[in-house]
Amino acid sequence: KKVAPVSTTVLVSGESGTGKELVARAIHELSPRAAMPFVTVNCGAIPAGLIESELFGHARGAFTDARVAKRGLFAEADGGTLFLDEIGELPHPLQVKLLRFLQEGEIRPVGETRSEKVDVRVVAATLRDLAKLVEKGEFREDLYFRLNVVQLKVPPLRARQGDILPLARAFLGRFNRELNREPPVSGFSPEAEAMMTGYGWPGNVRELENAIERAVLLAEGEVITPDALPERLWLQEESRSAAPPAATAPGAAPAMP
User: What's the predicted TM-score (pTM) here?
Assistant: First the structure.
């Protein structure tokens, strides 16, 4: 709520699946730019040879097969917010162009001789440690400082145990609708809730979301029981149950049965 009303650049960090894009969307939707575009791009999913054109656009004839001019994602996001996911994967030459935009508010499409002004707020996200990438020479230090004006760290789901059941119930309602479940699943059994809150969720919120979709699909009755949950939750529960009892300290009385 503090950073949304202004155009300050924000860096969202956290493990995969923690909801970094949702944080970026919340910033956009709480900002004066909410009625304008929210454009997302995964910097690690676009081949290095195409990402410059994808971000900044290109002029007609700028390269082979460039038969028409193309607007880039910065131009598409003009007036709104551009979310750069996996910013640590951005190739070094593109880091220079991004830095220039953050400093000057200008972009230059590939093959053009003149720059153009665009009004875009940048929110970037990373699961990698950018400070360590700077130390290795893999990420520009000046760009890191420009992006890291405000950093929001999204903790993993295992550190937010109190969020597990509220999120699960929210997903339950959504998948009841999307899967046209009739009658709808009304909730979780106490055993299923205990299993979910006791699990580590290495895939974070995304893993929980997938688990609830599966459970809604497979549930036999109107309540989700442990047998509808993924096998990996069972395996963790079984390994916990099979753990040997704590050793008795020397000289202490053995525990009563």
Answer: 0.82
Q: Phi/psi of residue 64, each to 5°?
A: -55, 135
Q: In residues, how long is the chain?
A: 257
Site of tokens 């809150």: 197
Closest CA to 87 of 117, 51, 33, 119: 51
Q: Using the structure block, give the residue that is written with the tokens 């707020």.
A: 121
From the list 216, 205, 256, 208, the residue with the least C-alpha distance to 232 is 208
Confidence of residue 207 (pLDDT cuts 50, 70, 90): very high
Chain position carrying tokens 């940048």: 122
Q: For residue 249, give the DSSP letter.
A: P
For the chain, the farthest-separated pair of C-alpha atoms sits apart, in whole angstroms, at: 85
State the pLDDT at residue 53.
Answer: 85
Rounded average pLDDT over 229-235: 86
Contact 191, 143 (CB under 8 A): no
Comparing C-alpha atoms, which of 118, 55, 131, 38 is closest to residue 90? Answer: 55
Q: Which residues of 83-119 are buried (b: 16+ CB within 10 A; e: fewer)?
A: bbbbbbbbeeebbebbbebbeeeebbbbeeeeeeebe
Query: Could you tell me which of 70, 9, 74 has the C-alpha nearest to residue 41?
Result: 74
pLDDT at residue number 70: 78
89-140 per-position pLDDT tens digit: 999 989 999 999 999 999 888 777 788 899 999 999 999 999 999 999 999 9
